Predict the structure.
Amino acid sequence: MIFIYKLIIVQTLQEKINNKTKPLASLGKLEQLAFQIGSIQNTLTPKLTQPTMVVFAGDHGIANEGVSAYPQEVTYQMVLNFLNQGAAINVFCNQHQLDLKIVDAGVNHDFASHPQLIPAKINHGTKNFLHEKAMTKEELDLCFVKGAAVVNTICKNNCNIIGFGEMGIGNTSAAATLMSAVCKLPLDQCVGRGTGLNDAQLAHKLDILSQAQMRHQGITDPYDLLQTYGGFEIVQMCSAMLFAHSRNMVIMVDGFIATTAYLMAFTINSEIKSNAIFCHLSDECGHRTLLNYLGAEPLLSLNMRLGEGSGCAVSYPIIKSAVAFLNEMASFDSAGVSNK
């Protein structure tokens, strides 16, 4: 009975979109978004309530191998910048009325309490996965508990659309190794310049990650891969996405790191795809390949590679426009306009 009702809603939703005063499919991707969001919410009149951006932050032991152009302390410094309203994500969230929460998933710093900061620290950064697994099984399990708890709290504020971003020096290295393992692609198709490596630094990064991959070869289970290569912020984001799907929320996915967290969530539960909106194509090497692997089409391509959830925040007005036209645009019948 529920399936039949859902089928009727989906069919009627497409008819509603087609009967707006416009040539068929002339609003392009906006029509796809409107259909997706209406389908997620199982309604002809979807709403976006209490939109929230969540930025997960964590440090990585692999950063000690010189795989980033910036030192590890930039992670905690940027978290402070977020809390002081000084970063790009602050500007864009303020511009588009998005609530912003920062999660300390595992930063190598102890922060004072702050209204926007969610304390979910697992440890002061992961271990160096060149030499050992990034985290223990207990830490992995705790990441899944805390990631879900973050979204559970946000749900209680009547939020039904949530965006995911990250901050963590070294996390493109973690993401690239995860992508390579899951997608079964050579590392050189996954590893990029991250925070701005030159050619020599990029070659060094690839060499370090190749050594790490040799050490941990043969791992295929997604949870084991997360334990081996993941950052605390990546694992918590994966868990948070899975929980958001379980609560039928619209999920906005940012760039390369967030898409890798989504990749792991998708590997665990492929049904999450119905709720995901891929907000932009990052300039980070590997992101286009990863999106192609997932069969995902990003909303924007602005040569951005900042992270922080910035692509989600910039894309949010487009998502709002999709819902607005569905709810407010006249139909041929209501406007008295002749349809072909």
Notes: The first strand starts at residue 52 and ends at 58. The two ends are 35 Å apart (CA to CA). The beta strands are 52-58, 99-106, 117-119, 161-167, 250-253, 276-278.
